[in-house]
Design goal:
The protein has 14 helices and eleven strands. It is an alpha/beta fold. A six-stranded mixed sheet has the order 2-1-3-10-4-11, with helices on both faces.
Length: about 350
């Protein structure tokens, strides 16, 4: 009996050795072997191009060498709830929900490890709307994708900066993007502050027009719409795997930048699988033109946006943003990759 047990033990040891050797030969370290599947969240939006086109190309699976469970969300707050609950490992999300989750977890929940997109958000109104200034929205109904999400913060800040109090002077209605389109078509909304492709959906299917492109409100038109976050616990246990994710993210970002026409085609094909309806080519090209694809989290504007969220009551009032938010942004792995590619580093503050 002892000889049988000893033989089995030797076989198991040998099997583990083979697995380890194979993993090393394939470039996957032992630290990454603990995760045989990675759960990644994103939205079916043009401001989330890398995960959508990356699925079409298969880049993330190839680079990371593990199965990926892609999960779609409507907006950031619900996605961050899933990440905090341990249901996601990595997520593409708006900066404000990311900052909110970080602060409310006392810096324990996540790290921002890269950027993904800038721009691509606008205030859309009906074509026949007679709007000259923000004051013309007094008493009107404007929608945002979700309470506390990045567009919701942008809308409320814009209203307040123009002397209008959300909830008193203007009815701000946080609802899901598909419902925004439905209500817009039914003439039950006077406007909506949304990201792409919903800006274009409201133009095409809702008979709307762009009243304000958010880029007009930022210096040089630069502001983060989407960043990449990782659950801190996953990051600590799978640092090499996260690095491989970032290599894939950078590869897909550069692919999109170099092949915009093919990127639009692949995005439309993948979007159709998710929301069943493709976008007309002309409108798709216009939507792409509003979005800047990047790997830079744009730390400066990100902190500005966080300050606005704090002033609106979405972040703790005592949050000090003067020197950045310690531990929030960690681009050390990203900058390692950029250095190897002879590209300039990105900033954390």
């Amino acid at each position: 009996m002892k000889s049988i047990v000893k033989k089995i033990a030797m076989q198991l040891t040998a099997a583990r050795t083979v697995v380890l050797v194979m993993s090393l030969l394939s470039g996957v370290t032992a630290s990454a072997m603990g995760a045989d599947k990675v759960r990644i969240g994103h939205f079916p939006n043009i401001t989330h191009l890398q995960p959508i086109i990356g699925q079409s190309l298969g880049t993330f699976e190839t680079r990371m060498g593990v199965a990926i469970d892609w999960k779609t969300f409507n907006a950031g707050p619900s996605e961050m709830e899933a990440l905090i609950a341990g249901q996601l490992d990595i997520a593409f999300v708006g900066p404000n929900p990311a900052v909110n989750a970080f602060l409310r977890s006392k810096g324990k929940a996540l790290r921002i490890i890269a950027g993904s997109a800038g721009g691509g958000a606008a205030l859309v109104v009906p074509k026949d709307a007679h709007v000259v200034s923000a004051r013309d929205f007094k008493g009107k109904r404007i929608a945002s994708p979700e309470l506390g999400n990045t567009q919701d913060v942008a809308l409320r800040h814009w209203l307040k900066s123009n002397g209008l109090t959300p909830g008193r002077d203007v009815h701000v209605i946080p609802i899901k993007n598909p419902d925004i389109l439905m209500l817009f078509q039914q003439k039950k909304l006077d406007g909506a502050w949304v990201p792409e492709p919903w800006v274009s959906r409201l133009l095409l299917d809702g008979g709307g027009k762009v009243q304000l492109d958010e880029r007009q409100l930022w210096p040089d038109g630069k502001f983060p719409t989407t960043v990449v976050v990782v659950r801190t616990e996953f990051y600590k246990k799978n640092r090499e795997l996260v690095k491989r994710f970032l290599e894939a993210h950078l590869e897909v970002t550069e692919w999109i930048q170099k092949r915009p026409a093919e990127a639009q085609k692949r995005f439309n094909e993948q979007l159709t699988r998710i929301v069943t309806k493709p976008m007309p080519a002309g409108l798709l090209a216009e939507a792409f033109a509003r979005v800047t694809v990047t790997y830079d989290p744009l730390a400066g504007p990100l902190l500005t946006s966080a300050g606005r969220a704090r002033d609106l009551g979405y972040l703790p009032r005592n949050t000090d943003l003067s020197g950045g938010i310690k531990g929030l942004i960690d681009v050390s792995l990203l900058n390692e990759i950029l250095k190897k590619k002879s590209l300039p580093p990105v900033r954390e503050k």
